[in-house]
Amino acid sequence: MSRFACYPPILAYHRVGEFKGDHVPTVSTRTFERHLTFLARGRYRVVGLEEVIASLARGQRPARRSVAITFDDGYAETHEVAWPLLKRFGFPATVFVAPAEVGWPGFATWQQVAAMARDGLVIGCHTMHHSYLPLVNANRLPEELVESKRVIEERIGRSVTLLSYPVGGFTPQIQSAVQQAGYAAACTTNRASPHPGIDPYALRRIKVTERDGNPMLFWAKVSGYYDLFRRLREPA
Ligand SMILES: [Zn+2]
User: What is the pLDDT of residues 220-235, one digit of tens each?
Assistant: First the structure.
């Protein structure tokens, strides 16, 4: 396979705003704003993840300079900081929430999640309990994949068709369960799918961190040179 993925780079943000000294990958508000400015000035086409999946299903190549934006975990800052900035730039995005975490300190509330959905952000599922799925007992998978989806749909009044694997963890059995649960696609981290070609149930994403305040690094990530860049930094 060529070093260029056959779908646009999918950026994975976690928290945007103030670093709280925890393990959560955090991008400062200033850096996030710079990223959006970079995409706008560079005439990147920021597309929704559903659009990426629809064109994959049709076997179409993505338009040049396309890029998709996603957020994991549904932090309070996704609503308070990232959403207003995305709105200002008119960029679509997908936010993956875990129902068991919604409303806890540091996380967006259901009201906030529903408000983002009404405003055009796409809400996806991040399992019920933010579980590392390869370690979840098979009899608990329906709760993590089916019940979680139903709860989010009920809260936001929209269908949920996208999933993000917590910590990128999946197996072929989990992928089948995700498909059976009615999801159209699922995102992982930068782990490659074991299957050759494009696997809609293991869409690779590019984690964005504060280090990407460096414009060259961010450029590498949104331009499809990221894999090459990784090879140069981490020679085999
Ligand atoms: Zn997560």
Answer: 888 877 655 565 665 5
Ligand 1 centre and the CA of 167: distance in Å? 6
The CA 74 to ligand 1 mean position distance, Å, reads 9
Q: What is the pLDDT of residues 176-202, one digit of tens each?
A: 999 999 999 999 987 666 666 788 999
**Distance, CA 97 to ligand 1 centroid (Å)?**
8
CATH class of 10-229: alpha beta
DSSP letters for the chain: --SS-SS--EEEE-EES---SSSS-EE-HHHHHHHHHHHHHTT-EE--HHHHHHHHHTTPPPPTTEEEEEEETTBHHIIIIIHHHHHHHT---EEEE-TTTTTSTTB--HHHHHHHHHTTPEEEE--SS---GGGS-GGGHHIIIIIHHHHHHHHHTS---EEE-GGG---HHHHHHHHHTT-SEEE-SSPPPSSSS--TTSB--EE--GGGGSHHHHHHHHTT-HHHHHHHHS--
By CB atoms closer than 10 A (0-12, 13-18, 19+), residue 169 is: middle
Provide the token pair at 84.
Answer: 């207003």
pTM of this prediction? Answer: 0.92
Domain layout of the chain by residue ranges: 10-229
Q: How far is the CA of 33 from the centre of ligand 1 (A)?
A: 22
Q: What is the pLDDT of residue 233?
A: 61
- Residues for the chain: how many in total? 236
